[in-house]
Amino acid sequence: MLKNLPKEIVKYLVEELPPFTGLLLVKTDENGIVRGYYGQYLDYFTEEPKVGNSIHDYSPALFSMIPPLVSPMVLNNIKSTTQNYADIHIIESSVNDYWVIFMDQTNEVEKIRDILQQINSKKLKLESGKIKPEKSLFNVFEHLQLKVLGEKIGMIESPIPLWFKSLNPTHKEGDSIVYTETFPYLEVFEYEAIEFWGWQNNGKLKSGIWTETTSDGREITLNAYAIYYNDEKYLLVQEVDEGLDGTQMALQMARDQKLAYEKLEKAERKLKTLLEYKDKFVSIVSHDLRSPVAAVLGIAELLLNDKEEIEKLSDFNKDMLVSIKEEMLRLLDYNDKLYHWSNLELGNFEIVRGKSSLLKLIEAASRTADQKMKAKNISFSTNLKDKILTVNVDTTLFLQVVNNLMANAIKFTPENGNISIDVKQEKNKLEIAVVDSGVGMTEEISKNIFKGFARSSTMGTGGEKGTGLGLGIVKKIIDAHGFEIRVESEPGKGSSFIIVIDD
C-alpha cells in the first residue's frame, strides 16, 4: 500500500503515527469529495466509500472540516460507527489533494469503563465504611466529577481537587453548579457532549484543552471528558501538565468557530420562530380584536345619541358610557398603531412614491385633527399658500406622519394654545415643521423621543392617554423615505418637529 501513496503521506505515517494496523486512508479533493481509499473501511464506515461522494456522508464529524484550518489536523476519539471510535488525521499533500487517516481507538475508549467501575466500587465501600475517605480512588485521579442533572447543571460527586479549590474555594462535594459558568469553555464543548450523550452508548468524548487563571494568578491547563455509562451522564474535568501548542490552538479555534456557527444557526432558527409568533400575534390584535371593540364602541355611541334613553340614566351611568366610548376609541387607535408599528419593524411595507400637493396633505391633516383641536380651543395655521408645491412621497404613509405629529402636538398643548405647520423652502432643501406652544421637553427626552414606547406613560395636558408608538412610526416612515427628522424643544416653550427633505 505504501508504494502507492505520496511521499509526504508515507513520511507522516512513519514518523508521526505509532506502529498500527487497521488504518483506513481516504483521499479527497478540497471539497471533501472522495477520490479513492486504502484499507478496511468496515471498521469505520457502514458502507464502502464511493468515488464522487462526500466524505461526511460516511463520517458526519468531518462536515466542513475539509479543507482543514491547519495541516495536519487531528480529531480525537470520534465515533465512526455505532460500535467504534477513531482518531482522525487530516493532511494536505498537494493542491486540491487531501488525505483522511482513520485510526481505531475503540480499545482506548473502553478503558473508561474500568475506571468508572472502580470508582463505583470504591464509592460503595466508602459509603459502607469499609475504607477511609482519604484512601478513596477519587483522590488518586485528582479530577472533578460532575453528574449531569440537566442542561448546564451538574452535581459534584467527588472530593474537591486542589486545583479546583484554587478556582472556586467555596464549592464542596454534593454542591450543584452551573458548569458552563464555572468553566465557560464548556459551553462550546457542551454541544458535542449533548450529541454524544444522545447516542446512549457507554463511552467517553474528550474535549480540547484550555486554560484557567487561579485566584493567585497562576494559569492551569484543563481538559474534560463527557462520559455516558449505564444510562448516566458525567463530566470529568482534570488538570493536565501540557500546555496549548500552535497546532492545538489552531484546532481549538477551528472547533470553536464551527460550534459557534452551529449555535448561531440555532439562534437564527429560534428567532425566525419568534418572528412568526409575533406576526400571528399582530394579526390577532389588528383583526380579531378590532371587531368586538368596534361593536362595543357602536353600542356606546348608539346609547349616547339616543336622547330619550340617555335621559333615563343617572349622571354616573352617563359618565360611564362616555368613559367606555373614550376607552374604546383609544383601544382602536392603539390597535391601528401597533399594527403599523409591527409592519414597519418587520419591513412589511413598500414605499410607493408619487407627486403629492403639500398644501392638500396639510389640509387633510388639519381636518383629521379639527375635532380634537376644537375640544381644547387650539388655533391652527400654516404659512404655506403655494398649491403648486409638491413632494415626492408615498401619500398614505406621509399623511400618517403629519397626522401623528399633529396628534402629538395637540396632546401636549394646553387649552387656548396654538399649532402651526411652517414650510421653509431653500435652494436644495425643503423643511416642514409642526410647531406647538405646548409644555416642551428636556434634552434627555428629546434624545429618545423617536424610540417606540418612549413616552407611553406620559399624560397629555388634557389627561389624554397615549400608546407611545406614534413618534416611533413617524421615524420609521421618514427613514424609509430617506428623509431626516429632528426635534427642537425646551421645557415650557413648546416643541418643533422638523422634517428635512433634500432635493
Task: Report the strand count.
Answer: 19
> Proportion of β residues?
15-25%
Low-pLDDT runs of 5+ residues are 108-113, 130-141
Q: Sheet bearing the most strands, described?
A: 7 strands, antiparallel
Number of domains as seen in the coordinates: 4
Q: How is the quaternary structure best described?
A: single chain
How many H/I helical runs? 14
In the CATH scheme, the class of the largest domain would be: Alpha Beta
Radius of gyration from the CA trace?
A: 36 Å
Describe this structure in words.
The chain folds into four domains: 2-104, PAS domain (Beta-Lactamase), CATH 3.30.450.20; 108-244, Beta-Lactamase; 260-349; 351-502, Histidine kinase-like ATPase, C-terminal domain (Heat Shock Protein 90, 2-Layer Sandwich). The chain has helices spanning 7-16, 106-128, 137-141, 162-165, 179-182, 186-198, 246-288, 290-305, 307-310, 315-346, 358-375, 395-411, 443-447, 470-481, and strands at residues 24-28, 34-39, 73-79, 85-94, 97-104, 143-150, 153-156, 176-178, 203-206, 210-213, 219-229, 232-240, 354-357, 379-382, 390-393, 418-425, 429-436, 484-489, 495-502. 41% of the residues lie in helices and 24% in strands. It is of the alpha+beta class and 503 residues long. Strand 16 and strand 17 form a beta hairpin. Residues 108-113 and 130-141 have low confidence and may be disordered. Helix 7 packs antiparallel against helix 10 (315-346), helix 11 (358-375) packs parallel to helix 12 (395-411) and helix 12 (395-411) packs antiparallel against helix 14. The longest helix has 43 residues, at 246-288. The chain is elongated.
